Amino acid sequence: MTNEALQELVGNWLPELEFTEEESQFLNIHVSPQNLHTLMSQLKSNPETQFDYLFCLSGVDWGEKLGIVYHLESTSKRHIVVVKVTTEDRENPVLDTVYDIWATAEFHEREVFDFFGIRFNNHPNLKRLFLTEDWVGYPLRKDYEDDINMILH
Amino acid sequence: MIQLSITENIHNWLFSIMPEGVASIVEMVLIAVVYLTIFAVTGLFLVLLERRVAAWFQLRIGPNRVGFQGLLQTMADAIKLLTKELTGTERADKFLYNLAPYFVIISALMALAVIPFTKEFHAFDINIGIFFLIAISSIGVIGILLGGWSSNNKFALIGAMRSGVQTISYELSVGLSLLTMVVITGTLQLSEIIEFQKNGWLIVQGHIPAIIAFMVFMISGTAETNRAPFDMVEAESELGAGFHTEYSGMKFAYFFLAEFINMFIIAAIATTMFFGGWLSPFGITESLPWLGVFWFLAKTMGLVFLMMWFRWTFPRLRVDQLLTLEWKYLLPINLVNIVVMALIVWLNLTIRF
Amino acid sequence: METEVVNTNFKSEEYFINMGPQHPATHGVLRLLLTIDGEIIKKVEPDLGYIHRSIEKMCERDSYQQIVHLTDRMDYLSANINNEAVCLAVENALQLEIPERVKVIRTIIGELTRISSHCLWWGVMGMDVGALTTYFYGFRDREMINDIMEETCGARLTMNYNVPGGLMLDIHPNFVKRVKDFITHFKTKLPEYDRLLTGNIIFQKRTIGVGILSKEDAISFGASGPVGRASGYSCDVRKHHPYSAIDKVTFNEVLKTEGDTYARYLVRIQEMWESLSIIEQLIDNIPEGEHRVTTNAVIKLPKGEFYQKVETARGELGVYIISTGTKNPYRLKFRSPGFSNLSLLNHIAVGGKIGDLVATMATLDLVIPDIDR
């Protein structure tokens, strides 16, 4: 499906979705944290979109907000869409997990928790993945400081 | 016939110098020393042979620096093992822990004593020869189980249990395939079996069932000594190194050497029962009975090479597949084979020269 | 008075085994915590992070040429293809016109890297199931490729031959001849591999029906590469999102449906044949031209987000760059194939035996630096 058709179809499902195609190869959908899970499950189950392959889940620190970028692809129709969600709360960010929709999200969300500190509701095993259990801080955030381990130009 | 009656001469000389009791004891000590030397030298040589053969299969050279063509390599390894610290676990059962390697060595030595190297070089020629051999090889299992139990280590215990199960299962096949050959010879005594083979080696005399018995014997023999492709127990070293995890230094060397000697014994038994022992093919060197040692060693080394070939080519069987192989395939084949062999002997269909 | 500690995820007959970070068969430093009942596995939990070097954080302060040097430390067996991924992402963002010569050479070297990685995989696979000789045979053939790489690129493992804009140096004059010699040599060796391992009944008993992965699970877990293709899931990036000179050659995507360990094994062996055929189609007609397009000394990507997918020997590698117009990326994320392949280990190993776990892990072909980054 083309980007316009996708935009039209998905725009009818939920209010408050922002679509943009600038500065990106694919169609980007911004969604609010409350609607995240409904949008994702519909993207997967709807027979016209059928996004059954989540191939990249990245955490991003946008400066003031923390966010996640999901890259979705459909193995039958071969279209790609990008879903972005952000939260303003830097002290205690919480989002919904998509593990029940795509099983690959389990490890990816653990990695995001490890490096950014975003917690996920209903995640089966939310522990740090790469760093040790007693590590303090979230390294990939922009305001992370570590005099011993970091060398800056 | 040129006979070097060394054993007779030594026997008479000893009995002429000392009183009877002492002379018998000295004789026994002498024989024990000779056999211990054979044990040690064979073990050393086999370890080196395994490394060179493995290297040949793997397109490399192997140890060839220490001594001529690496012959002193195992000596160097033995010296290293002797100087290692003997770490034992704290709560291991000290007595059983120290006793376990000796069981394995003693059973290997006792089996060596019964094997005929040549006409006069035969330490213990009892009338139940082959039966004795099968019985002795069962004693080695005790050493394995004791070693695993007394180490006070749960992985060693599991490894020992598995190894014990494997050995006990495959002993059945070993025994039955040897009994198949006894049906032809009609006698259990090893020197008489070899005399019987002067009319042609047993594998030729018994044709089809003998060849099947030989193949079953080689498979079960390899499995009984825990060698690849049946070494899941000890090569699972990612999890637990089997029953000899907690042994180090000389005690580990005992287990290690005993495995190689067991391999030699299996090959020696196969040579005796199937390929004529120390007899030369077509009787070409009949007049020099002491050349029998050379023929015996040549045949045994050929079979040892075959066992090494198995190890470096085949993948490993999983533990449950191992036991399935024995109980569902080898055992029925063996039983049918004995019946077939009995029929052939009864109907006089054996090949004789 | 002692109180009893009750561990809720541990029944009394089960015991706990650690397949520690040091392995005899070097998949890398991976620690697996196994919960076992007798011989049956109840739960597998990987413990990662032993070789985590924070590559993604380092990329936020490095220039784009420097980032290329970091990528071949990730999955060191497909080093060239990793470099190609970042170079392609940068070149597509800058919309550079890459000469045909560069594309063809990149594809040839990429396929050679794939064969080299599969050779090593085959050797280690044999070693894991117990046939210890296969290790040496795999490495012997890999040596020929390493020598070719050393002559052209200067290094045997971390080649760094690709730069944004083309190749660092032109290929050595002996390159074409040596590659052709290699192809002739290797075509006689692959049947030898089949005789040694593929047709062996013991090997087949260890691998057929073991570690079955269905197609839906493969898609849901994000499996890619030979792991996905063995379950019938068509996921070859070279077919769906072609790059470099791949669209000029014809090759088959190897698919099987059973999804067990033996199918994954056969897929990789067949992929080696396909790679040989791709190289053969390209090696005789390398177009003339420049080997490098000049870029600025300081590369600044325009503002925006860029994603590039390539097919490494392990599966689909993704490079996701968020740039704000400066000389360093704002965020760079590597989507590594091993990461998703490892997450399905718990799903397919539960219910099998320990020996099956070893065989299954060998066919998942994990390289831990790729997962830990």
Overview of the structural elements:
- The complex is a heterotrimer of chains A (153), B (353) and C (373).
- Helix content of chain A is 20%, strand content 25%.
- Chain A is α/β, with parallel strands linked by helices and 153 residues long.
- Chain A has a domain at 3-89: Beta Polymerase, domain 2 (2-Layer Sandwich).
- The radius of gyration of chain A is 16 Å and the shape is globular.
- The mean pLDDT of chain A is 85.
- In chain B, 69% of the residues lie in helices and 0% in strands.
- Chain B is globular, with a radius of gyration of 21 Å.
- Chain C is an alpha+beta fold.
- In chain C, the strands form three sheets. In chain C, strands 1-2-3 form a three-stranded antiparallel sheet. A three-stranded antiparallel sheet of chain C has the order 6-7-8.
- The chains are: A alpha/beta (153), B mainly alpha (353), C alpha+beta (373).
- Chain A binds chain C through residues 22-26, 52-56, 58, 60-61, 69, 71, 75, 78, 82, 102-104, 106-108, 129-132, 139-140, 150, 152-153, and chain C through 48-49, 52, 54, 56-57, 61, 217, 219-222, 233-235, 240, 303-307, 309, 316, 318, 320, 322, 331, 333, 335, 339-340, 342-344, 347, 372.
Going by helix content, strand content and strand pairing, the class of chain C is: alpha+beta
- The count of DSSP E runs of length 2 or more, i.e. the number of strands of chain A, is 7
What CATH first level of one domain in chain A would be assigned? Alpha Beta
What's the average pLDDT of chain A? 85
Unreliable stretches of chain A = none
| Overall mean confidence score, pLDDT of chain C | 86
Going across the biggest sheet of chain C, name each strand in turn: 1-2-3
CATH topology of one domain in chain A: Beta Polymerase, domain 2
CATH superfamily of one domain in chain A, by name, is NADH:ubiquinone oxidoreductase Nqo5 subunit
- Characterize the overall form of chain C: globular
Number of strands of chain C: 8
Strand content of chain C: 5-15%
Q: Spell out the CATH superfamily of chain C.
A: Cytochrome-c3 Hydrogenase, chain B
Question: Do you know the CATH topology of chain C?
Answer: Cytochrome-c3 Hydrogenase, chain B
The helix/strand order of chain A is HEEHEEEEHE
Rg from Cα of chain A: 16 Å
CATH architecture of chain C: Orthogonal Bundle
Helix content of chain A: 10-25%
